[in-house]
Amino acid sequence: MDAEPIFYFPRDWIFALIILELLLIYLLLGIMFPSYIFLPFKNFFQNKKTNTGTRSQFKQNSVHSVDLAGDSSLTKEEDINKTNFPEKQIPEILKVPLLEPKITSPAESLKPKVTENIDSRAVGEVLQKTLQKMVDSLNSELGQLSSETDQLGDKIRQCGQTVIQSCLQALEITRSALKLPAPACPEFRMVPEEELATEFWHDVEVSCLDKSSDDRVRKVATDLTAIFSEGRRLLYTEAYKTTPEQKFILIPEEEKTPGFYFIGDLHGDVLALETAIQFAKQDVVKRGLEESPRFFFLGDLFDRGKNDKEVLLRVIELLVGEPERHGFVIGNHDEGLAIDQVSGHYLSSVHPSEFSELMNAEPQNSPWRELVSGAMDFFRKAPRAVLLPDGLLAAHGGVPHTDLHDSIISAASLEDPRMLEDFVWTRLHKSAPKKIPNRSTRGCEIGWADFNAFCAKCDKSMGRRVVGMIRGHDHLEQRHAFLEKYQEHPVLTINTISSRLESETGDFQRPVCVARHEAGSMPQVFGIIAPLDLLEKINGDHTPDRSKLSTAG
Question: 70 and 26 in one domain?
Answer without folding.
Answer: yes
